[in-house]
Amino acid sequence: MAPALQFQLVDSLDPSALDQAAELLATQWPARGPSYRRQLLQPYRTSACRADRSALPKVLLLIDREASNTVVAHCKLQVFPQADCAGDRIAVLVSCVVHTHYRNRGLGRLLVSHAEQAAAANGHGQLFLWTLPEDGVAAFYKSCGFEECQRPSYSPAHGRRLRAGQRNCPPAPTRAVWMRKPVRSLHS
Q: What is d(CA 72, CA 139) in angstroms, rounded to the nearest whole number?
């Protein structure tokens, strides 16, 4: 089912959207509260003003225009610090969440689709993510075309260089399920 036109995709974080996105993330993952989430999102607010707005890292939000511009979905896309930079460049979907009242409307698929387009626009050939088995969302990602895989190789040195520009790329626990999907270049 296609989402209604009342939803708008944005990639800039005004103060209100930043606060709402932080609340949404804290609701989904309550171990750390909204103030911690707000602190992590703050650099994305300023990065949305940079000259190349298409560059990664980026935060994408879905706004419900009929509900007082409420943030209803969030995803964050970053560069993966891979060891083999000669191969396909890898982007990682760090977080993707839809507010519980807005689930099962196609918004998660819409957000994942836009994340794929952003990865492709930045020359990334693969989009990776990890999830925990107890979260029960692996089936959703499989339905979006992702397949289970091994964790991609990681370069600590490259990771340190990236960390300054994209904040945190949370380490995956050993029980994490890694998934990947090839993304098509917009120029092919």
A: 21
